[in-house]
Amino acid sequence: MINTFEEREVEVERRFVRKEKDIREDIAWAKINSDVLRSLERPRMLFWVIFLGSLALFMFGVSCEIYQYETGLGVANLDNPQVWGLYIATFIFWIGMSHSGTLLSAILHLMHADWRKPIYRFAEAMTTFSLMTAGLFVMVHLGRVWQFYYVVAYPNERWTWPNFQSPLVWDATAIFTYLTSSMIFLYIGMIPDLAICRDNATGFRKRFYTFLSLGWMGTDRQWANFRVTYLTVACFLIPLAVSVHSIVATDFAVSQQPGWHITSFPPYFVAGALYSGCAAIITLFIVLRYVFRFEEYMTMPILEKTAKLTFAISMVWTYLNLVEYSATWYGDDMYAKQALIYRATGDYAVFWWSMNFLGSVVPFTLAFKKLRNHIPTMLVVSILLNVGMWLERWMIVSPTFANGIYPWTMDHDQWPAWVQWGMVAGSFGWFNMLFMLFCKIFPSVSMYEVKEMVYHRSLHTKAHGEPSVNHELAAEGGTAS
Amino acid sequence: MSITNLLNNWSFYRNKRPYRGQYDLNRQYGEYKWAMAVDLDICTGCNACTTACYAENNLPVVGKHRFEHGQVMHWIRIERYWDEKMGEFPEQGTSFLPMMCQQCEAAPCETVCPVAATSHTNDGLNSQNYHRCIGSRYCSANCPFKVRYFNWWNYPSTAWPAPLEDQLNPDVTVRTKGVMEKCTFCVQRLSEAKSRARTEYRLVRDGEVLPACAQACPTGAISFGNIVDPESKIAKMWKNQQVDLYKDMQEKDNTVRGYRILEDLRPFPSVMYMERVRDAEA
Amino acid sequence: MSESGINRRDFLKVLGLGGSSLALTGCGNTDVQSGVEVVMPNVHPEDFVVPGLSVFYASTCTQCGSACGVMGRVREGRVLKLEGNPESKISGGKICGLGQAAVQAQYNPDRLTQPMVKEGDKLVPTTWEKAMALLDDKTGPKSGISGEQFAFVTGATSGHLKALIQNYMDSLGSKNHFVYEAVSPAIGFAANRQVYGVDMPRLHLDKAKLIVSFGSDFLGTGASPVHFAREYAKFRKAPRGTLVQIEPKMTMTGANADRWIPIIPGTEGVFALGVANELLNHEEYVRATSPDIVALVRKYDRETVSRATGVRPELVAHVAALLWEKTPSLVISGASAEGHVHGVQNAMAIQLLNKILGNVGKTVDGQAQSPFPQIAPSAGSFAALKAMNDEMGGGKFKAVFIHGANPVFTAPSFMGFRENLRKAPFKVAFVDAIDETAQECDLVLPILTAVEDFGSHVAWYQPEGVEVSIQQPLMEKLHADTRSMGDIMLDLVKVRRAEEYKAWPDFFSYLKTAVVAVKPVVKYTDTDEHFWYDVLSHGLIQVDAPQQEVGANFAAAALDLSSSAPVQDPKFPFYLIPSERHNFRDGRHANLGWLQESPDPLTTVVWDSWAEIHPKTAASMGISEGDYLEIASQNGMLKVKAYLFPGIHPDAISIPLGQGHEALGRFAQGVGVNPFRILDPVFEKSTGEIAMYGTRVSVRKTGSKETVVKDEGPYNTQLGRKLVVTLPADVAQLSKEI
After folding, report:
1. Given a contact as 3+ CB pairs under 8 Å, which chains touch C?
2. Which residues pair with C78 in a beta bridge?
3. Residue A430, SS3 per DSSP
4. Size of the A and C interface in Cβ pairs below 8 Å
5. pLDDT tens digit string along C223-278?
6. In the complex, which subunits touch B with 3 or more CB pairs below 8 angstroms?
7. What CATH number should be reported for the domain whose range is C202-365?
8. Which residues of B touch A255 (CB under 8 A)?
């Protein structure tokens, strides 16, 4: 007999997960509820390790910012012409990270790819938090951060407006819009689940979830309205997601700097964004699956599908990358060509070649089914891919400054100071902290959609009479009702 | 830029810059277009202009360490280039190039500033509004000449140990940390001259006002003036050197020395350089 | 007394103060210096002070010896900036970077603000009363000091302060006024005196079609850089003159040359004679030259000259051909040709070209003869310090005054000047900032800077007539406890000659009287007062004076350079070139931040010293930029970073002068190294001047390395961009330009 959670877990692991099975079709809805709600209560120890570690990193980042705020940006070792450094590189990285959430939740939603359902919630949360992290970098890189609101078009007594020609204004607008929309999208999608939380919670939590679930009763009318709203916001979000990273790309593409002034930058940035986002989903998938014991929901077939998607996007990215290189090489823009040669042979050569290796060669591991289903490999590969993507952004920003148009001011010696590295590290701390808090407070697996998925599948099975998976465990049922 | 202004003058603003007729002696605004000419043949590279600029424009002395990190604040710098085809020795001397903000007519820095802190004035200057600047440094990133200098540190508190701050020019702001700055063509002198002229119901006379660099330059390599006035020396020089403010690709005789730097990027600089001459037979 | 410790009187004071300060803040202004609110009385302002408006006052720049007329921009009682005075024939309304920085000397945070007296090993503040009492005690009539026992070391000096110093020396009965300049034109003067009969002829750059300069950095550090820069600009206008520069290390002037020829240091004279030999192939030149000189010059054929100088033989003929083709021309000798054992001969051999080419009288003629011998300039020499040092080493002097010179810093270590100075029991320095010499002194008196003080100057290079440049205060003195050098000297003179000088309470009145006395010379007819204000408002007195006669006397014997070949010492294979930088000169201006941060034109290095080494030499020794080198002469060693510089002879190493201060405040201290220290005791044989370019050094790579702080980026070419375009002179049509 199976009595305790632990024994049951071992059993589940043995029978289903290890066998690379998908979610059981006969899983009881009550059990789904109980499993997911459990993630709000008792995570594994690793949760606290990650959370506290992230908090510490974040605090370090905050102290770096305080130091920089007080002293001036000089402490970051930025200079003329190296005016942006890691701040903008990491900004693009986090913006990119935000894209896959929308991809999974909105695009795949429209495409009825139901395998996304157990994982889209956390991907959507990732979108929101990485946007918030990206926003931080816009702030910390400003010389006078206390006046950041000048960028926003707000009515004021001086009748001054931002410069609408500037891609930075587009940026600010797009990012704020995207952030608001994706938060609304995340929230709307959670309402039915918040109602489940409400029904199972006590004390202040009950009040909290009651407030958030907006009186959700699960009536037909509510479901109908919910479906329409969700679909509308999803449709709204997709062009927004594409535009946000295209606009970040225009920050570079509309400038005159060699290595930036490239027409293919918007699609290239979007591809890069999806790429790093998918890789990040794989990382977080593996972490959440372990930390919150979601092995039954975040199953290996889902991981495999995500990996396949990542591989496909990596190839698109590689293609666009090669387009960029060859267009520069065969073009007659002397400045761009010199900048490209500098990237490949100059002071950043090690990073540039690592970027190409990590971004274009390492993803070939995803082409092998065996490796796709090997969790440690996937963890390492997904992290490596993101290192590669971070390097990509750095290699866009810094070498161009180091070897721009004007020969006298070229600067090959600049190296980011510890303040910059500290803030990059702090941003990871901030993101992880927010993400972990989210998963602890909100259901990170969408309960109602998993139920839907299971239901649809079982209907499908019944209709086609395929052999069902075994029923023993289902009969034993979950513990919570 | 106010939205009313934008709407009222829509046709003016959507014009491609620069356009012929943008500056006109008979217009109430736009009767000045300040321009410069630098004769590289007589520039000796002595750096008098740089020091004059430090004195006039309250430029901070950053010190060795910050200079090493590229955080120097010289608005005008003298570049020294060796000949690419130089043999063992530089037998034709070296090339000096005084480089200051080129006050481009189609300035790459202006379009990208998110808060319009840098914009074009009616007399053709590329102005920098320190109060509006939030320090995104996009302008510097997009400046092909890299003549914009950012206040990486809080210089007012460190660069002028007492009583050095007594030397500061009260006509020029002392810039705080986090703002971008650059050569202004000594706009404080221009404003003063303009307002003096206005009180006398006239335009600024040719040679009445000079930026600090041009005034100091011992060889007189830097000329400055109002190019709208066809009688001014600078207008005559530009015309003589066949450099047209409104053209990006000059069609000029090969005996003529005038050119503008990085014209292929189409920033339409307001600084004309005159080619260095070397006696090939010497 | 009340319990609170405030008596009635204090209470009233507080009340009164409170009441008035309340009233003041209402209409007050913020004081720039302290930030406190003070009243700015608009009712009775100082003369010419209108808040918000600047006034320009004419004065004279004293940063170097050229005595450029300047205009100081004064606002709210502070001098903000200097511009050139357009009326000055020297500056012509222009100014160099060094001159601009004079205002930084004024506001320098490390200025000496009170008298200091030595107690033990340290200088401690004292008062003027005590300082003057000490002076009186040591040098006054009661001290029993004789004229022999007293020495006064000054830098180059001219004008009425010089006269006053002379009067003081006379009152003491002393002849020991040593005018010392570390980088002095004395060798050139000696050659000029032999050849032309004058110290310094006038050089008409603008009239020449070709200038051949043997190491003369007339644009950077010469007699009158601003004036020569203006002349140079005219020279480059149509018809464009050609500049040929022959020197071991490229100077700023060399950098502007049409043809720059590197040469083994010290062989410039041989090269000149080689060129002369080529020129004498033209019959008309032979006719104009005395036979013994022709005979001497014939020895210097192309191949011989090439072997001696390291210059390709065809270049000797080429320079001669240029000189033949382009007349009138001008041949100038400069520091790197003159700073050798045979410096005078070198210079004379170079001047011989002017004679052969018939330039004397055309591009070389006489300066105006100054009608005021008393205030005529003394350009100074190294030999003066050497003489003084030798006597001081013998313990001869009981009291030494030092003003306008920093011999502890600039004297080579072999002289042991610091040790000898310590032998003098009483040393007084008159300085505005404590330098190395002042540190050694027993009494240091703070004097006003040039922009606070009255004065008059006469430059030793006068382009037109004689310009007596008047220096007037551009602002009130900044530090209350500083005094005018002239006032101090006047007080000292009065100690012994009170009667003769009682008419003048201060230097101002002395100067005014002296200046007004010039009135008849310039045929001014209005009142004295008018004349004085006229002079002040123009900042100068322009005197038309007859031109000096310039001869051209060459004796073949004096020109013989056959024994001038440099001595080869395998232990010290390199020639040391201690190069003078236009901003620092001998190092007295190293405490000015603007100058420290103004990049060296050729290397663009800032805030440091460096050793220029040819890339070829560097490659053979495995040296790359930033490597610390040990550069050792017989008299010392310097550790300095290498900078690879193509404009230097491969056998030479150049270190700029002026850095390496142990004192002089925060901007100068600990920056770079001081090449004066390692100079060898090599002297010019006829004048006794130190041969600045005669030191041989060895170079060793230490293995440590550091970034060279410079403005230059990783590339030093234009990378195919069209930044500085060069047009051949025969294509350019300068005559059609405006």
Report:
1. A, B
2. C75
3. helix
4. 24
5. 899 999 999 999 999 889 999 999 999 999 999 999 999 999 999 999 999 999 99
6. A, C
7. 3.40.228.10
8. 108, 112, 138, 141-142
Which single residue is written with the structure tokens 């000088």? C501
Residue C449: which of C472, C465, C429 has the closest Cα?
A: C472
Instruction: Report pLDDT digits (tens) over A380-437.
Output: 999 999 999 999 999 999 999 999 899 999 988 888 999 999 999 999 999 999 999 9
C673 touches C609 (CB < 8 A): yes
Pairing mode of beta strands C627-633, B77-81: unpaired
Q: Say if B129 is an interface residue toward chain A (CB within 8 Å).
A: no
* Cα-Cα-Cα-Cα dihedral sign, residues A163, A166, A169, A170: positive
Q: Does A82 touch chain C (CB under 8 A)?
A: no
- Find the DSSP H helices in A292-417: 300-330, 334-345, 349-356, 369-372, 375-402
Residue type, B202: R
CATH topology of domain C565-705: Barwin-like endoglucanases (2.40.40)
- Return d(Cα B240, Cα B243) in angstroms, integer: 8
Interchain pair C94, B216: CB under 8 A: yes
The Cα–Cα gap between C700 and C680 comes to 18
Which residue in A has a C-alpha nearest to residue C716's C-alpha?
A408
Give the closest of B96, B169, B221 to C80, CB-based. B169
Token pair 């995803």: residue: A366
Dihedrals phi, psi of B270, to nearest 5 degrees: -95, 10
Q: Are A363 and A51 in contact (CB under 8 A)?
A: no
Name the E strands within A187-286.
none
CATH annotation of C116-181+380-447+482-517:
3.40.50.740
Instruction: Name chain C contacts of A408, Cβ cutoff 8 Å.
Output: 711-713
The alpha-carbon radius of gyration of chain C (Å, integer) is 28
Distance CA(B45)–CA(B99), nearest Å, equals 11
Please tell me the distance from the alpha carbon of residue C615 to that of residue C114, in angstroms, as a whole number.
50
Can you read off the two tokens belonging to residue B281? 């037979």
Q: Min CA distance, C93 vs chain A (Å)?
A: 31
Contact C603, C647 (CB under 8 A): no
CA terminus-to-terminus distance, chain A: 20
Which amino acid, one-letter code, is at C516? V
Calculate how close chain C gets to A405, using CA atoms only, in Å. Answer: 9
Task: State pLDDT tens for residues C41-97.
Answer: 555 566 667 778 888 999 999 999 899 999 999 988 899 999 999 999 999 999 999
Domains of chain A: 5-464 (1.20.1630.10)
Query: What distance in Å separates residue A412's CA from the closest CA in chain C?
Result: 7
Which amino acid, A140?
V
Asked if C409 contacts C417 with a C-beta cutoff of 8 angstroms, the reply is no
Give the chain A residue whose CA is nearest to the CA of B69: A79
Q: Retrieve residue C232's tokens.
A: 């140079």
Q: Do A411 and C713 touch (CB under 8 A)?
A: yes
For residue B261, the chain C residues in CB contact (below 8 A) are 722-723
Show residues of chain A in contact with C715, CB under 8 Å. Answer: 407, 410
Residue B163 preceded by cis peptide, ω within 30? yes
Per CATH, which fold does B22-274 belong to?
Answer: Alpha-Beta Plaits (3.30.70)
ipTM over 0.85: yes
Q: Which two tokens stand for residue A271?
A: 């591809």
Q: B83: Cβ–Cβ under 8 A, 6 or more apart, which residues?
A: B90, B92, B94, B95, C717
What's the average model confidence in pLDDT over B68-81?
93
Q: Name all chains with 3 or more CB-CB pairs below 8 Å to chain A.
A: B, C
Q: Which of B70, B97, B136 has its CB closest to that of A142?
A: B136
Give the SS3 label for residue B271.
strand
Q: Is the minimum CB–CB distance between B237 and chain C shorter than 8 Å?
A: yes
Domain residue spans of chain C: 8-38, 116-181+380-447+482-517, 202-365, 565-705
